[in-house]
Amino acid sequence: MVRLNFCLAGILSLLALGWIAPASAADRVALVIGNGAYQKVPTLPNPPRDAADIGSALERLNFKVTRLNNAGAAEMRKAIVDFGRATEGAEMAIVFYAGHGMEAGGENWLIPTDAELRSDTDVESEAVSLRSINLQVSKARQLGLVILDACRNNPFAAKMQRSLRTRAVARGLAPTEPTDNVLVAYAARDGTTANDGDGRNSPFTTALLRNIETPGLEISFLFRNVRDEVMTATKREQQPFVYGSLSKEAIYLKAPVVARPPAAAPPATVLAAPPVVVATTSTEQNAGKDRTTPPDEKKRNAFTEEDAKRIAAMGSKLKLSMPPFAIGETKADVPVSFQRYVGIWVGKVGPGEGRQKMLVLTEALSDGMVLGHYVYGPAAKGTWDEKSPAGYVGFAAKISDNAFRFWSGIYAIEVKFTGTDAMSMRVTNPDKKITGPAIRFTPLWRLVSADRTLPANDAKGGNEGGRTARKRTTASSSSSTESEPASPDAGGSSQSTKALYAKCSAEGHRIAGGPHKNVGFSRIEACVRNGGQM
Predict the structure, then answer these.
(1) How many CB atoms lie within 10 A of CB 272?
(2) What is the per-residue pLDDT across 71-130, written as a single tens digit (0 to 9) for each?
């Protein structure tokens, strides 16, 4: 004990003397620079506003933000060195720069407000290199991110004297090759220039602000959304570009919404209002019970711990590499026609066991964005890609015309509702108008039951789904399995198995007390295994 106390006293003494630094680095750090008030060329109005708005967004994302406004060379260099010290031990480090930038001699430079740049030989002494910033953010453990809204037309280049021995000063920025865990995002791809815009922010920063705080939007998909929005806003004249690569680990600036256990209800002292049924295929212990929520409840959460265990077991059975995910509360302002996408959907491609597929759709937003994962099992033996392993890809996509489209990392995929309780997936190439064969997906679990959704042709993004939709769905349920849970064989069941599911589900409706209610999914599964006996 004496020896332990002596060691502890020694360590505390070293800390007091400053020989051992206590761990105090912030997990998330950011440096935000907006240069607009240039002394030797015309002023840029947007960069200071762009930097101010991005800085505020990053602070809301729990970044410790250092801000520079209209900074000169000495101020920028000192801030970058200080920021490099702050990144040591940080999980994420982000540098956002808005202002003038240029390529000279094959290297990229950010231009301070006091730069004059009479000659191309002045660049190294008057500007700040992108390479130096990349080195600083690379110290972060998980992600180093450099965002440059700096590809504007360069007014310095026209008057700059060229030396005979120096390489050309090019239009826009040069391509860059960051290493390790660093991504570099340009407002416009190499060799092209970006539009400063007529509004408060540039088109690039406007799109970035619209996406950066979206929960569950993986970093790669965040910048894909930004790219598409900028190209639309500029009529394809400006194409943002991202350089660098990351590991397969999903990275979020704002994590997905995590489900929380519902709080215990207080004892009722007055007569409660009639409950509103929330659709879910729950487990055996909840068989015959309706999951309810008060009618004034603003959010909806029906995915239970038992549901999560059942999905995990099914993923293991289908040899899927399941992603970590949570299906949290759904805001009440999300239309039913968007809510109906949320769920766990399964299908397969190929004969026999084939290659199993799963769509884990975790959240739908009121603007039509849907978030989730595309999960695929190992390729079947004897196929051309039989050595292809299991895996998954996270995505965020926009629902449009009863469908959404996302990039799998290899090809574009379209997912579309084909009935009240089934979806199809196919590989697409919009440029060449080529589509692959459709794969049918049916639900293992879903937020909204089929009797609350619209027929595919009637879904237009509103809060529809009234009496007509219910009547059509119910009428077809006796002759189709589309409104029933999917077979454990993930879409590969025989017609006889489908008939058993229809029979067991119909009996479940009867036991539960109505066409819009049902018993737990596991009880229906047991019924099917028992030859149709509930």
Answers:
(1) 11
(2) 999 999 999 999 999 999 899 999 999 999 988 878 899 999 999 988 888 899 999 999
E strand residue ranges, 382-528: 391-398, 403-407, 412-417, 423-429, 434-435, 439-446
Length of the chain: 534
Three-class SS state of 123: helix
**Burial class of residue 302 in the structure, from the number of CB atoms within 10 Å of its CB (0-12 exposed, 13-18 middle, 19+ buried):** buried
Domain annotation for the chain: domains and CATH numbers:
24-243 (3.40.50.1460), 276-474 (2.40.128)
Residue 44: both structure tokens together? 């840029």
| Among 23, 28, 177, CA closest to 90 | 28
Q: Is 473 left (phi over 0), alpha (psi -120 to 50) or beta?
A: alpha
Rounded to two decimals, the pTM is: 0.50
Dump pLDDT digits (tens) for 339-392: 899 999 999 887 777 889 999 998 888 888 888 889 988 887 766 666 778 888
Positions of E strands within 118-244 = 128-129, 143-149, 169-170, 182-186, 241-243
